[in-house]
Specification:
By secondary structure, the chain is mainly α. Helices cover 92% and strands 0% of the residues. The chain contains two helices and no strands. α1 runs antiparallel to α2. The protein is rod-shaped.
Length: 79
């Protein structure tokens, strides 16, 4: 039980950090999209930015599922 509580704290902290990274990355992608630079270089950076944004969002949703699962296990143990 104590292990699940500590794991949830860790997951929540990590999720908070990833949300901040996604916000920063989104701003960077928008900034790249509106700058005046070589179109090939811009597309290259946008592809990598969007890839990492999708990757981080996927990690956030996986953490939410783990947190929900841990909370469900803790509720079942308390019954």
């Amino acid at each position: 039980m104590k292990y699940l509580e500590e794991e949830n704290k860790n997951l929540i902290s990590l999720r908070t950090s990833l949300i901040a990274i996604v916000a920063l990355l989104t701003g960077g992608i928008v900034g790249i999209a509106i700058t005046d630079m070589n179109i090939i270089f811009k597309i290259f950076l946008l592809i990598f930015g969007i890839y990492f944004e999708i990757l981080f969002i996927n990690n956030i949703t996986n953490m939410n599922k783990k947190i929900d699962n841990n909370i469900g296990v803790m509720k079942n143990e308390c019954k």
